[in-house]
Amino acid sequence: MQNYIVRMPDRAEMARVLRMMTATEPGAHTMALGAGRKRPHRSKTRPDLLVGALDEGEIRALERDGAEVYEDFALAPMAASAREYWRGPVDPASAAAGRSLTDVLEHIRVVDAWRVTRGAGVTIAVVDTGICGEIAEFPLARRSPIDLPTAFAGDHWNDTQGHGSMCAAIAAAGTTEGGRYDGVAPGATLLAARTTLMATDLFDIYDELVDLKRSGAIGPLVISNSYGLYTCGPTGVPPDHPYLEIVLAAIDEGVPVVFAAGNNHFDVACNHDPSACAPSTIWAINSHDRVISVGTVNRDNSNRDTATPHVNSSRGPGEWAVDLPKPDCVAPTYGEVVWGCGYRIMDWWGTSGACPQVAGLAALLLAANPLLSPASIADMIRGTCRDIGAPATCVGHGLIDCAAAVEMATAVA
Question: What does pTM read for this prediction?
């Protein structure tokens, strides 16, 4: 059995299918699922969608009855398998040596923004490999009590890979209880959304978050997504896939959604000319007009210098972009940062480490002005970027400037 998302022709057919799956032998379908397979269930926010494991006979029967079936697919952290950039030693002479997250925060002028807000009152959901619950950067007082009933229910505050903890720390780590580093929004609340990084699980996570927003169970919210597709050509993901639909539903509920642009350009994946700003290598949802897509640069504000791995930052305009070419902006990544339950020095953090900087900035803007829409937040971030003298397909509108963006947000409050 494989997981699918199925768009049912009507609610009556949905009810009939769910009854059929439990009518004869209670529990039999669940017992046959196997590891990683989901018990078929109806979406909480899209009543025409069924999510779960189905066999080939069930799929054929549903299609005969007019249902539209979407296959599951795997995404990856923007640092995966052979692309595990964190494993290599750092040259003591490199720009990363002796640098850290603290230097990066100074680079993007976040300390000046903290004179206005540190992000209190806003929740940042980090959809990733989990978050280590054992280090001081993530005190209990700033952890959301929400335990999403998805693949890792009861185990979201655990990170066996390290990647999600890095992203959470960059977005919202804190030093108030002995942590080594602050993140961009050290007053924000963190919601751990550990995922299998399969499209069906990501759908369920977003479904839960949209439901929480609609019910009023969660206030101002930003979602950080440092994962995507490692490929060098069109993805084949249908633009009407329910995964995209549920991400856009979150934005419709007032939630800024931030994605890593990807690490596809040079030797991580596609081997394009490292000094060029083409061809496009930002794929699928990471390139959609309504999300904020973030590339990365080095300490010298470049992603075309072959002396650093930032040349891998994916180029725009993006597979699905129409009116708002990607990336929207860039953020610097270098030096020591949280990794898992400890710390690691890296030449770069991939676009994975750039995305949560912008998620943290979005949280600062929402804290400064809770009435801002996701589109307004994206406009402010783009509109206050510093020009770093590179083509838009490499760096978008430029380097984020947290102080300037927060100043703009307060000016329209």
Answer: 0.94
Contacts of 179 (CB under 8 A, 6+ apart): 135, 136, 137, 138, 139, 173
Query: In terms of domains, do 192 and 151 share one?
Result: yes
CATH no. for residue 9? Answer: 3.30.70
Kindly state whether residues 323 and 185 are assigned to the same domain: yes
Q: How many helices (H) and strands (E) does the chain have?
A: 12, 14
- Per-residue pLDDT reduced to its tens digit, 197-245: 999 999 999 999 999 999 999 999 999 999 999 999 988 999 999 999 9
Q: CA separation (Å) from 404 to 163, 173, 380? A: 29, 22, 9
| Domain boundaries, position 347 | 76-411
254-269 mean pLDDT: 96
CA dihedral 52→291→395→336, nearest 10 degrees, is -60
The rounded distance, in Å, linking the Cα atoms of 111 and 122 is 18
Pairing of strands 49-54, 41-42: antiparallel
Q: Do residues 331 and 198 both lie within one domain?
A: yes
Is residue 163 within 8 A of residue 129, CB to CB? The reply is yes
Tokens at 365, concatenated: 């803007």
> In the predicted model, what is the mean pLDDT of residues 118-128?
98
